[in-house]
Write a structure and sequence with these properties.
Helix content: 40-55%
CATH topology of the largest domain: Rossmann fold
Bound molecules: ligand STX
Largest sheet: 8 strands, mixed
Number of helices: 12
Order of helices and strands: EEEEHEHEHHHHHHHHEHEH
CATH superfamily of the largest domain: Alpha/Beta hydrolase fold, catalytic domain
Structural class: alpha/beta
Shape: globular
Length: about 325
């Protein structure tokens, strides 16, 4: 079983202006002359936490992490304008160019896997490899499962708060009902909806629910960006041209070394999507963690990810 590398501080960090309104926070950890990696966080809207720096041998890798538009320390906070998947892909390219990187490993879980796949499909020549965890293709059936009906049957206790935020007459379409509240002019309405939405995800992310994770997503700053940005992206089909965009374009990434890590009991992003990706991309290494849910901090998932990067380190040197 592998564990995280020790806590580490960035050797460099800053803000990059990426549009008339947005500036994104970025940081670099590890060895500036090492093998480049870009880290893509989840949500969208989830932002960085310091633990994300610890999957990579700091002597071997040069890791670039950033808060996606509206997330974490990026400004303006929880902003939905000029905030699409295509904007994020362009931001990844802007960071790559800023640091003079030719190609890099792309490491992402959950929404980070969605964005990694979309980036790989559009910029395959820039990818040394893809490390994908908790596969999320943001298709209607995945959103329906988590936000309308399905996961509700597995976590009926936590579901109540998510459900009760919305009056009965609007419950046939939770996504639309939440979108209305998350974009309301009334700050109290926005925040209450954001907390109900975000804690649902926090509560269901681990095989064994973790109150600390729920409390984290109760925070005003965290809840507002995660809920508003997720709902905005999902209402818009993640801005993809069609529901099956990622699987339909998998040929474009076929030659990129890829590792897929999936918790068997992932309720946020059920294993079917990882399985369908595996079937469409049998060249990729496919690792099912037998005793894990969705969270990157579950032991088996952390171990598989650290091990994948350790193996790429050897291959890359
Ligand atoms: N959201 C999937 C996702 O990207 C539907 C994700 N799941 N949990 C997270 O992100 C946080 C860790 C940011 C809560």
């Amino acid at each position: 079983m592998k564990t995280l590398y020790p806590e580490i501080e960035p050797f460099d960090s800053g803000m990059l202006k990426v549009s008339d309104i947005h500036e994104i926070y970025w940081e670099r950890v590890g060895n500036p002359d090492g093998i480049p990696v870009v880290f893509l966080h989840g949500g969208p809207g989830g932002g960085l936490i310091p633990m994300y720096r610890q999957f990579f041998d700091p002597e071997a890798f040069h890791v670039v992490l950033f808060d996606q538009r509206g997330s974490g320390r990026s400004t303006p906070h929880a902003e939905l304008r000029e905030n699409t998947t295509w904007d994020l892909i362009n931001d990844i390219e802007a960071l790559r160019e800023k640091f003079g990187i030719d190609k890099w490993y792309v490491f992402g879980g959950s929404w980070g896997s969605t964005l990694s796949l979309a980036y790989g499909i559009n910029h395959p020549d820039r990818c040394l490899g893809l490390i994908l965890r908790g596969i999320f293709l943001t298709r209607k059936k995945e959103l329906q499962w988590f936000y309308q009906y399905g996961a509700s049957e597995i976590f009926p206790d936590f579901w109540e708060r998510y459900r009760d935020e919305i009056p009965e007459e609007e419950r046939d379409d939770f996504m639309t009902a939440y979108h209305k509240r998350l974009t309301s002019d009334d700050e109290a309405v926005r925040l209450s909806a954001a907390r109900a939405w975000s804690t649902w995800e926090g509560a269901t992310s681990k095989l064994f629910p973790d109150q600390e994770l729920v409390d984290h997503w109760e925070g005003e700053h965290e809840a507002l960006s995660l809920a508003r940005i997720e709902c905005h992206y999902f209402m818009n089909g993640s801005f993809f041209p069609d529901d099956n965009y990622l699987l339909n374009n998998v040929d474009k990434i076929r030659d990129i070394p890829t590792v897929i890590v999936q918790g068997r009991y992932d309720v946020v992003c059920p294993m079917t999507s990882a399985w369908e990706l595996h079937r469409a991309l049998p060249e990729a290494e496919f690792i099912v963690v037998a005793d894990a849910g969705h969270s990157v901090s579950e032991k088996g998932i952390t171990s598989a990810l650290v091990d994948a990067m350790d193996r790429f380190r050897t291959a890359g040197l």
